[in-house]
């Protein structure tokens, strides 16, 4: 029987995977979203500034800050609304949640097997490459099932 926590985790995973699928291929325009939207509408920086009740340099500064990653979410929202748009903020997985989890589990498994192999080599009991790959795969699956408390710690 599934716990409420497991059901919620599956729902979160589904929501994020769906969102990731929707934005696949979406790239930030070279000039940024503010400038691109403004130019697509044919609204000048002074006109947008007037709509927002700010100065013209504030619009250019916002465009620059967006490009540099320094514009605030609130400011993006106000700018979008002033241009008749909406600001959408999202964090989505690069791929699917399951892929991120598997990559992390494999990274941890490889580190554990590498450390164990080093000790075994000192005792002249090294695993063959096939045995090493099999052990990494076995440990990856175990880590995915059990998710130990140190799952996200660097290996």
Give the tags.
mainly alpha, 7 helices, 155 residues
What does this structure look like?
By secondary structure, this protein is mainly alpha-helical. 67% of the residues lie in helices and 0% in strands. The model has no long low-confidence stretch (mean pLDDT 92).
Q: Can you describe this structure in just a few lines?
A:
Helices cover 67% and strands 0% of the residues. The protein has helices spanning 4-23, 33-41, 45-52, 56-68, 73-82, 97-122, 129-146. The model has no long low-confidence stretch (mean pLDDT 92).
Write the layout of secondary structure elements.
Blueprint lengths: L3 H20 L9 H9 L3 H8 L3 H13 L4 H10 L14 H26 L6 H18 L9
Helix pairs in contact: 3-4, 6-7
Largest β-sheet summary: none
Q: Which word captures the global form?
A: elongated
Number of helices: 7
> What Rg, in angstroms, do the CA atoms define?
24 Å
Structural class per helix/strand content? Answer: mainly alpha
Number of strands: 0
Strand content: under 5%
């Amino acid at each position: 029987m599934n716990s409420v926590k497991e059901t919620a985790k599956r729902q979160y995973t589904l929501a994020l995977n769906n969102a990731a699928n929707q934005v696949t291929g979406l790239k930030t325009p070279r000039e940024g979203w503010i400038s691109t939207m403004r130019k697509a509408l044919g609204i000048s920086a002074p006109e947008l500034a007037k709509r927002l009740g700010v100065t013209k340099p504030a619009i250019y500064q916002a465009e620059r800050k967006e490009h540099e990653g320094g514009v605030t979410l609130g400011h993006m929202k106000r700018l979008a609304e002033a241009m008749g748009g909406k600001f959408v903020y999202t964090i989505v997985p690069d791929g699917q949640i399951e892929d991120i989890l598997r990559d992390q589990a494999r990274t941890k498994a490889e580190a554990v097997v590498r450390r164990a192999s080093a000790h075994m080599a000192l005792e002249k009991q090294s695993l063959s490459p096939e045995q090493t790959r099999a052990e990494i795969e076995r440990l990856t699956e175990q880590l995915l099932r059990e998710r130990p408390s140190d799952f996200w710690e660097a290996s």
